[in-house]
Design brief:
The protein is about 40% helix and about 20% strand. The chain has a six-stranded parallel sheet with strand order 10-9-11-12-8-13, with helices on both faces. Strands 1-2-4-3 form a four-stranded antiparallel sheet. A three-stranded antiparallel sheet has the order 5-6-7.
Length: about 325
């Protein structure tokens, strides 16, 4: 059975209530959360009041916010109906979405759409759910375009989601290998000479990519695939002269690629491959006077057919909520300066 929504006659133009009826009382208990903490979280983040009346929830507030809160409750209930649990992060993600997105191209049987347009990417270790509208649009574009850019501040899931999509395509046989790369540029520090062989020298720069892979695949499988060269993690400089065919290719920290490096990398794209470029324009670590290849690529490729650009803001940060506020504070300071 579905959820019924009953809106009583309007008492005032600015304050009304919407009644939502939930047929399964056990799922309603899970929807509310222990001591109604899920409802309290929605109330706090959306500025509404939610009252429980038997198997109904009354959402009280102005029309726009009320309807958004009702959509959040419906989406979370649909998640429960699909057999998925709810935690604080899921509630926050639903609040960020507000209302369901249009249909998203799946591109693979490893993508599942459920409840009110919610998306889930299946990997070998855990399912991944985009938690903002920008993230959902980004994932959709990675499946529907051969070349995509994800641009925005740290913590918005640009690289994490790109690697998740790459693993998904690899598992489902859409690509034969995964290639992850980033420029070996120090972030404002001088680390000096690093001992060891070439792998030991570059691995510290590549660690975020290893971390993402290990989140989606068992460690032994990652190691085996690395040994078989079906997964490659290498500095950008190692891409010169290659043609990357039947591969899912990610260039991370692309703001630290020079214009020539970016052109070199983009022209490596071969048959049957997908390429994702991620970066943050505010964290360029190139020497003074050297232009960022990411900024030049935005300008040069903005009207090229088959290339998609997705942008993120502090509102898409999915790390600690304080990270988003820190980014917003720096953005305000930069705008004032």
């Amino acid at each position: 059975m579905g959820i019924s929504a009953l809106t009583p006659p309007t008492r005032a133009d600015d304050v009304v209530e919407t009644l939502l009826e939930f047929p399964d009382n056990r799922l309603l208990i899970d929807l509310c959360g222990e001591y109604d903490r899920n409802l309290a979280q929605i109330e706090h983040q959306m500025g509404v009041h939610i009252l429980r009346r038997g198997n109904r929830l009354a959402v009280i507030g102005d029309k726009g916010t009320r309807e958004q809160a009702a959509a959040v409750l419906r989406a979370l209930y649909a998640r429960l109906e699909a057999g998925r649990a709810i935690n604080a992060g899921d509630v926050e993600g639903a609040v960020r979405m507000g209302v369901p997105m249009p249909d998203i191209p799946r591109g693979s049987e490893q993508i599942e759409m459920f409840g009110a347009g919610q998306m889930e990417i299946r990997t070998r270790k855990k399912p991944i759910e985009p938690r903002t509208e920008a993230q959902k649009a980004y994932v959709a574009n990675l499946f529907s375009h051969e070349l995509g850019f994800g641009i925005g501040p740290a913590g918005t899931g640009k690289t994490y989601l790109a690697v998740a999509v790459g693993v998904t395509m690899f598992i489902s046989g859409m690509v034969e290998k995964i290639i992850l790369s980033r420029p070996a540029v120090e972030a404002g520090e001088r680390l000096g000479f690093l001992p060891g062989d070439m792998k030991e020298k570059v691995d510290p720069y590549m660690q975020p990519l290893y971390d993402a892979l290990n989140d989606f695949l068992p460690a032994k499988q990652v190691q085996k695939l690395l040994e078989e060269k079906r997964i490659e993690i290498a500095p950008l400089a190692f891409m010169r002269g290659r043609t990357l065919s039947n591969a899912f290719v990610v260039l991370d920290e692309a703001q630290n690629a020079t214009t020539m490096q970016m052109k070199m990398f983009l022209t490596r794209l071969g048959e049957g491959s997908r390429m994702v470029i991620t970066g943050d324009r505010t964290q360029v670590d190139l020497p003074r006077g050297v232009s960022s290849g990411l900024q030049d690529a935005e300008r040069i490729l903005k009207d090229v057919k088959g290339v998609t650009f997705n942008y993120f803001t502090a509102k898409d940060v999915v790390r600690h909520p304080l990270v988003g506020r820190i980014i917003e504070a720096y953005d305000r300071d930069e705008a004032q300066g």
